[in-house]
Amino acid sequence: MSSSVPKDPVLPFLYKSHRGDPSGCSVVARPSRSCIPRIPILLMLIGLLGPGLVRGQASRMPPAPSIADPLGLVYFEGLPCSELGKAILEVDAGQLTVSNLGTSGDDGMRVDLGSGSISSFKAEMTLEAGALSSGTEMSWDAYGHISGLPRRLSGLHLRAGAGGIDVVPDFEGTSKYRLVLFHNDAPVWRANGRSGIAGQVDPASATAPEIQIWSQGVVLLGGIDPVSGFELPDGQVIQADEAMMVAETSEALGVHLSAVELTALGLPRIQIRGQSFVLDCCSHRGTGQVQISPSGTGLELGNLSGRTEDGLDVDLGAAESSSIFVSGLDPLLSPGGTALNVKVSGSIGGVDRQPVAGVRVEDVGIEVTAAFEFPNAGGTYSVEVLEDGEVVGAISGISNGPAASFVADALTYIQ
Q: Between the ranges 32-36, 170-174, 189-193, 306-310, where is the mean pLDDT highest?
């Protein structure tokens, strides 16, 4: 997909506004020189030597010695993956390779999404040229809950034949769906009441497919070559790079995703070059060797053992602000040196992914300190302390080092 901002095919976006309780005490840091980014796009959390936490859930999982879990799981971009059938999973050079895919159709992998509030999952793949040849198949299936019961929700199947690769959606409870075709994120064709095969794509262009699957009965195929386009069953070719299929019944709606499964028949291997999930309308992706466990309305981040790259990327789209609710930074329970880094990137002067601001919260023994940074806003900043919304203390001209210290369990959110 050309944009990581998730489409909402069923309902308008619901951006949850996370605001702190104004009746408490808060510390606000402001750059000395005004520099307001137009579009903050990325928030990165990095945990060091201790637990990491997002939206209220803390993790105290012990560090793992490698990316392979003792239970046989393979963690890729934070999510636990397990082998299905005779498949073999290997992580190398930033990619997850699924190999030893036989002809039973049962070989592949399962990605466990836990019991949290994940609404969609996305996988970006790389296939060898000509891998999807006649007689081969690849399927993604999503599992979740309907009326409180665990159920399969939907699937998307790519079946190669002599004329091309058939794109076949599969929804529980209905055979009817709406088909919407996109080019550069803009809809270019749509129709209701479809069933069976949605259309075909050229095998020669199907080397970098992207799959996104929602809990609400929606599947999307991206990475289509717009030159060869998407051929409808009636022979009409639409110049599109994405095809979205939406179930036309509420019976296919699930509360959240609990797992997705990839299976293949006859393919030599599938390389997963990236995977992410959507929580609270924002796309999340693990970095380094972090281990993510969705639970309730939050995430538990484990295996944060001192590597500065271990953490979580959150794509905020065009958000103006975001809050992270945290817990578990109690110095009486955490090892010395525990730190949580939050860095925000945005668009400055029309250039994306520029550093905007950052905060480092660090356990120093009997208390927690906070240090701030504003890389593109001059060398100094000021700090205000607010209680019940009123300024009760302030200092300016801070250039480096901690700006404030407090009791660890007093920290509840970072905005």
A: 189-193
How does DSSP classify residue 280? T
More confident residue, 351 or 48: 351
Q: How far apart, in Å, do the first and last CA atoms of the chain sit?
A: 29
State the pairing for strand pair 339-348/381-387.
unpaired
- C-alpha span between 58 and 43 (Å, rounded): 18
Residue 357 φ/ψ, nearest 5 degrees: -160, 165
The letter for the amino acid at 337 is G
Q: Give the HSE-up count for residue 148: Cα atoms under 13 Å, Cβ half-sphere.
A: 0
For residue 322, the model assigns a pLDDT of 74
What pLDDT sits at residue 186? 93
Pairwise CA distance, residues 172 & 175, whole Å = 8
R_g of the chain computed on alpha carbons: 23
Rounded to whole angstroms, the Cα distance separating 195 from 179 reads 9
Residues in a beta bridge with 110: 82, 261
Residue appearing with tokens 């088909």: 179
Q: Are residues 37 and 355 in contact, defined by beta-carbon separation less than 8 angstroms?
A: no
Distance CA(307)–CA(65), nearest Å, equals 12
| Lookup result for tokens 């709406």 | 178
Which of the 8 DSSP states describes residue 309? T
Which two structure tokens, joined as six digits, stand for 190?
């749509």
DSSP summary character for residue 68: B
Neighbours of 204 (CB within 10 A): 12
Largest separation between any pair of C-alpha atoms in the chain: 74
Residue 224 burial (10 A CB sphere; 0-12, 13-18, 19+): buried
pTM: 0.81
Mean model confidence pLDDT for the chain: 78
In tens, the pLDDT along 237-272 reads 999 999 999 999 756 566 789 999 999 999 999 999
DSSP labels for 349-381? TTEEEEEEEEEEEEE-SSSEEEEEE-TTS-S-E
